[in-house]
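Example record

One chain of 377 residues, shown exactly as stored in the release files.
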Amino acid sequence: MHDLSECTLLIVDDTETNLDILVEALADITEDISVAMDGPAALDSVQDSPPDLILLDIMMPGMDGYEVCRQLKANPDFRHIPIIFITAMNEIGNKTLGFELGAIDYITKPFEVLEVKARVKTHLSLQKAQQALARQKEILEIRVRERTQELALTQEVTIECMASLAEHRDPETGGHIQRTKNYVRALATHLQNHPRFKDVFTPEIIESLYLSAPLHDIGKVGVPDHILLKPGKLTSEEFEEMKKHTTYGYNSLKVAADKLGDYSFLRIAMDIALTHQEKWDGSGYPQGLKGDEIPPVGRVMALADVYDALISKRAYKSPFSHQQAVEFILQGKGAHFDPDMVDAFLEIQEEFRQIALRFIDFKEEQVALSKPYRKST
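Predicted C-alpha cells for this chain:
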C-alpha cells in the first residue's frame, strides 16, 4: 500500500455539516485537506493548488458538480485529477452522466465513514500507482532517447572513421568529408519541396543520407597506390581500374549491411557508393545507368561530389572559383546531372559556398570562394 499521508484532497460541498464529517473521517489518511462550498471556489482552489483527489458534491446552487467536473476535464492541466461525486441521488441516469463526464466513483449520502475512507484510500492508491508508472515511463523514455543518441553518435563516428581511412589513401583532404555530407543534406532538404522528390527525401532518408555520404568513396581503399596517388592524368587502363572503386565500396558495404538487416543505414551508403559516378545521360559508370534509373541519393551525391572536386585544391590543379563551379554544373544540366537537381542547386548555391567556406582546407580555396555567384550575361 502506498503512503498516502502526503496526498492532497479537495472536498467540495455547500453544506458545512457534510464538510465537517468528511474532513474528520479523512483526517487520519492525510491532513492536507482543502474545502470549497461552491463550484467557482472549487475551480479557483484547483487552479491555485491541484489536489491528488477531489470529492465533489453534485447538487450545489449556481454551478453544480457536473459543470465543475466538465470544466476540469476540459483542461489539460487538471483532467488527470480523479473525481469522486458525493450525492444523495441514487438514480442510474445521474450516475451514468457523472461517469460520462469523467468521474471515477460515487459516494452517496448519508455517509458511511468506513466506506468513504475505503474508497478514498483505494483511489488515492491507484492515483499514486499511476503517477509512479508515469514517472517510470518518463525515465524509460529518457534512457531510450539517451541510448538512441549514443547509438547515432557511435554510428556517425564509425562512418567518419571508415571514411577517413579512405581519405588517408587519397590526395583529397579531410574537409571533403564534412563538406559533401553538408552539401547533400542541404540539397536533399531543398528538394523536399519538389513534386518529384517530396516522397523520396523524407527527414529519415535525409538524415541517413547525411550520415552515409562520407562513405561514397570508401571503395578507394581497394585501388592500388600507383593509380590512386598518381599526380598526373590516368591512362585508359588506370582509369578503368579507378572506376572499380564504386563496386569495391558497394560490395564492402553490402557485406556489413546484410548482417545488419534490411533497415540498415548502410543500404543508402551502398547506393551512394555504387552510383555517385553515374550520369543523367547514361555515360557514367559502373553500370551506365540513365535518368531515373540512378537512385536519387546517387544523383544528389554526384552533384555534391563534383562541386567539391571543382572548388578544391589538388596536386594537379588549382581550385575553381565558386562562379566557375556553378557554371560547370549548369553546363552539365541534363547530361551529367538531373535537371531538377541542378535547378535546386542553383537556388541554394550560396548555401553550398558557405558550407565550403566553413570547412575550408587551404587558403587558395578560401580566396577562390570569396565571391558569390553572379549569372553570366
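Notes: The first helix runs from residue 16 to 26.
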